[in-house]
Amino acid sequence: MKRKSGFHTALIAICGTHGSGKTIxxxxxxxxxxxxxxxxxxxxxxxxxxxxxxxxxNQETTPKAQMWILHKLFESLLHLEQPGIYHVIITDRWxxxxxxxxxxxxxxGKPHVNAALSQLTVQPFDFVFIPKGRKDFLISNGxxxxxxxxxxxAVKFQSEAEGEILRLFRWLKRRTKKLQRPFKFEVLPEFNDxxxxxxxxxxxxxxxxxxxxxxxxxxxxLPPL
Length: 225
Fold this sequence. Notes:
The protein is α/β, with parallel strands linked by helices and 225 residues long. The chain has helices at 22-36, 63-80, 97-105, 110-122, 152-175, 197-216, and strands spanning 10-14, 40-43, 88-92, 127-130, 186-187.
């Protein structure tokens, strides 16, 4: 989407299941780009605000609550993507919330999936990165539903959610194939060294987005990778 000022804002989503390090990656990416001189907007995970508006989440969630989460995110994106303000917009989650609705409600989640498809036709993303879920990341953050004993069911749910997200994204990719900017996503590579996992994945993302940022914003230089 071209800007009146010449801006062509880069839209980046960090998606995936809970306990995959999405929030850490988004924070690191936003910090790195800001230090380089980019004006960056980072949208936190919308679901964390749902209870304040009376919408239940986790096991108690409802179809209306999941639709509210999706539309609240769409609203934030449209509001932030104004002419000549932000070079880059990064979201912690995106239409992957529709996958949770599908997982929770089966066919009852179809309206959420259709809403995700509609949003893609209006506001396609440049990059969608998916870090793989890790059971050692299944820790409580005050919102996430996690069994403190890390039971088999908690790990199974994480795996099921990740599978549903990937199925949704493959479906969206097929459905948007004929668009000018079809939906694309990339599952981030795994790294054996957990201590260096975030920095290695960050370096991978920077390497992937560098050509487009350089083309759109030639006066801003990313640091050496």
